[in-house]
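Hey all, quick one. A colleague (J.T.) asked me to put the S-adenosylmethionine job into the tracker so the inputs and the structure tokens live in one place instead of scattered across chat threads. No bug as far as I know, just bookkeeping. Sequence used:
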Amino acid sequence: MFLGQSCRRWRVTGAIAPSGRALARAMADAVGEVAPGQVILELGPGTGVFTRQLVHQFPAARVVAVELNPVFAAHLAEAVPGATVVTGCATRLGAHLAGLGLTPADVAGVVSGLPLLSLPGDLPQRAIAAVAGALRPGRRYVQFTYSAWAWRRFDSTGFHRGPVRRVWRNLPPAFVLPFTRSE
Ligand SMILES: C[S@@+](CC[C@H](N)C(=O)[O-])C[C@H]1O[C@@H](n2cnc3c(N)ncnc32)[C@H](O)[C@@H]1O
């Protein structure tokens, strides 16, 4: 299914296969502290590799997964019933939170599988701005990328970047970029 969607919508899918479990664990580990009842927002969950890990690793949290592709979103809602799936664009995070009766105060962190390097136009920058708007200072935004170098072209004003972690056991190997929302 992933490959089929990738062929139909390459620029927004940005990969030919789902991430591996080692990357999912590294992404979840980078989220930091999550209090019971708090929300972890996931952007671009695809077929749910990160979603499953988040639900497993943070059983007392609520995982809200925002997916643009309705085919992936429908699959995910069935495959991972422990998560709340929103079909929509990551750039509209404020509206998605409000629709669920949530505010940034509820959000412990954001985990993003968005393919920022292949998304068209100003979508990547608008997605990053939406993340900044959804996070209180001190909270984490965890992004994965296949090129930590190319990623530098994005403006991450409003975030401090922590140490990058490389995950070799992924096809292709990937980087986990942990950002903390600044004041
Ligand atoms: C590289 S795939 C990652 C999927 C999954 N997280 C993984 O690692 O296997 C990118 C995902 O982001 C989704 N996506 C792309 N643009 C989006 C947007 N603006 N809002 C929400 N999801 C988006 C795609 O449909 C796809 O599911």
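Adding what we noticed when we looked at it: The radius of gyration is 15 Å. The first strand starts at residue 39 and ends at 43.
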